Known about the structure:
Order of helices and strands of chain B: HHHHHHHHHHH
Shape of chain A: globular
Oligomer: heterodimer
Number of strands of chain A: 0
Helix content of chain B: 55-70%
Radius of gyration of chain A: 18 Å
Largest interface: A-B, 46 and 34 residues
Distance between the termini of chain A: 48 Å
Largest sheet of chain A: none
Number of helices of chain B: 11
Number of helices of chain A: 10
Strand content of chain A: under 5%
Order of helices and strands of chain A: HHHHHHHHHH
Shape of chain B: rod-shaped
Structural class of chain B: mainly alpha
Amino acid sequence: MSPQExxxxxxxxxxxxxxQNDRTAQGELYEHYVDAIYRYMVYRTGNxxxxxxxxxxxxxxxLTSLARYEDRGLPFGAWLFRIARTRLVDYWRSTQRxxxxxxxxxxxxxxxxxxxxLPADRQEYEDLLKALEYLTEAEREIILLxxxxxxxxxxxxxxxxxxxxxxxxxxxxxxxxxxEILTRQEQFYDADTEGRYGR
Amino acid sequence: xxxxxxxxxxxDVAVRLEGLRRLHLSAADRQRIWRxxxxxxxxxxxxxxxxxxxxxxxxxxxxxxLVVMAFxxxxxxxxxTQSLPGDALYPLARGFESAQLALTPAPQRAEVELQxxxxxxMEVRQLIHHQRPVPPEIIIEISTAVEKMITAPESxxxxxxxxxxxxxxxxxxxxxxxxxxxxxxxAVVVGSTAAARVSLQPLSTLTSSAIFAxxxxxxxxxxxxxxxxxxxxxxxxxxxxxxPGESHRLPPQEQMHRVRNKRYPARI
Lengths: 199, 268
């Protein structure tokens, strides 16, 4: 499980050094996971500033709790994502609202996300984000953990407190649903719009 | 990322989803987030601080509540110990006494019973001082305790100790009789207590005149309601065939027994 494969990345050694308060090792662990955590946060909150702040809090927790971390069957990445998930739930609780069924990306973020893409890619990207909104919360979470944060089913199961087979089944259903939405996108959105506003 | 069967089956969707990874933080953003994380770690995350604040407030509130509760409980217990028969808190005080008696080991139980008997005497004195009626239950209770003492004086520290306590009870009961001359039960118990006290005297000090003196003591012959009670029947209701005026010459234990049975007749 490695969000960014690097040939010289030796995670156990880095964790050992980071526990000794080695700032370089802590920084390397941060560099290794920061994008994955940030993507998880930004696709779930739809807000760049909030995602950035939550990411900082996750790594602050990593720094304060690293001394207590021991790899007893829970890989470091899964441990970090569990912190992220807990922090996200705390955030929703503190803002007195549940996770929105559809994550509406802020306009600023949409511009930020599609800024450097080619016009064709940009449309495809926007369609994908829109299609994600039609998944359930659990489906969207495992899709994001798998494809945005590059985790495998084993790690995802540990993070969402499930088992790999259940994650695999849910992943299958989510992908099938997504393909259906993306294949018949215009038809699907028209029907959905009628369903929402046509009555 | 490992490509398994699902990814192969849904490769078109998977390829599009991999586009989500295009999102990267800029170097400046990374630096900023790392600095923020470090500062949070130094002073503790804001949420944790807030949660700690809430926990602290809860603990303070809980501790304050405990102190208030302890104060209230102490006050009620203290007030109940000062209560007299007829007061609202008196049953609570009696409950504490029962618990104290139940928790006392058998060897020390007699001593506690004597303490409680003295407390009854003190309560009776206070009731009389405040011109309040003495409930008959208290008289019965004193009578029972006195009987218990004279039955087995050695359990209560010997004849000398028991005599001292009997004298105290006798003095208190005389006050009851003085306050309420119609209290036949009190009069009987006074007489029997006095007789018991005398019967516990060492033989060398006992004289027949001393024994008969207890029976003719004024307290033993309280003022009667002349219209309702005939002379000689002022203590207890005599049994059939018993000569009126004979009952007060019965042994003290028998007199007390009759007082109790008259009030709480045995079920047959």
